[in-house]
Specification:
Blueprint lengths: L11 E5 L13 H14 L7 E4 L7 E4 L6 E2 L4 E4 L5 E6 L3 E7 L4 E7 L1 H5 L2 H11 L8 E4 L9 E2 L14 E4 L2 E4 L1 H11 L7 E3 L13 H4 L7 E7 L2
Parallel strand pairs: 2-4, 2-6, 3-5, 9-13
Antiparallel strand pairs: 1-14, 5-8, 6-14, 7-8, 7-9, 10-12, 11-12
């Protein structure tokens, strides 16, 4: 799927695969998944050799990408580039894919935002990298892609303290505790200087939509995931 917010920016490719495209998870079922990835990239008009992937380790590591020599960036959950025709990618199966573009300075970025990465401040760190390349927070165009909604992101008390700085994002209902990951991300973006009118939420809960894989819903033996991609075309 092409993300709605970026359709008005023809130079930007911002897409996410769906279940029908097959699993895009790195390393698992490597031959099959690699073929799924290649076919999906071709279907959206990009070459496999122009795609760089974050390893995705649920941390806050961010890499600035200047070329495609290294195809998988170890230890990274976020990628930033100022080069056209480099397409940055992450995989997600419940976590929030955050797509960012700063057209004026031709900067693109993407982040895999599970709860661990979020509380480790991957979003503020990502914006720091964008600023280091000359980007301005007020110029950012941002989309929060399909992900697990607060309706299904239930947590236990053992990790509740991780969200102590975000009480407004913790919901207690019927004796259960839920967290709104996107609300935390939105707050972090605004606190870092992004304009709320430039932030778009696709507002899709993957648990409730059969169009997407959801680890919590499907409970597969091996993780099946979508790939999220952003790039600036030549």
């Amino acid at each position: 799927m092409m993300l709605e917010f970026f359709k008005k920016y023809p130079e930007i490719l911002a897409v996410m695969s769906e279940k029908k495209d097959g699993s895009m998870k790195l390393f698992d079922n490597s031959d099959l998944n690699a073929e799924n990835r290649k076919q999906f990239f071709e279907s959206v008009g990009i070459k496999n050799e122009n795609v760089v992937a974050a390893e995705v380790v649920h941390g806050n590591g961010i890499a600035i990408i200047n070329n495609t020599a290294e195809k998988i960036i170890s230890g990274a959950d976020g990628l930033v580039s100022q080069n056209r025709n480099i397409f940055l990618s992450i995989t997600v199966a419940d976590c929030v894919p955050v797509y960012i573009c700063e057209e004026k300075n031709e900067i693109i970025a993407i982040a895999h935002c599970g709860w661990r990465s979020i509380v480790k401040n991957i979003i503020p760190k990502l914006l720091e990298k964008i600023r280091a390349l000359g980007g301005q927070a007020e110029n950012l165009k941002i989309t929060l892609g399909p992900a697990l909604g607060p309706c299904h992101f239930e947590i236990q008390k053992d990790i509740l303290a991780e969200f102590k700085n975000y009480p407004e994002s913790v919901v207690r209902k019927d004796g259960k505790i839920f967290v709104d990951m996107k609300k935390i991300i939105w707050r972090q973006l605004e606190e870092a200087g992004a304009k709320p009118e430039n932030i778009k939420d696709e507002s899709v809960c993957v648990f409730e939509s059969e169009r997407y894989f959801s680890f919590r819903r499907d409970k597969p033996e091996k993780v099946e995931a979508m790939v999220a991609i952003i790039g600036m075309k030549k």
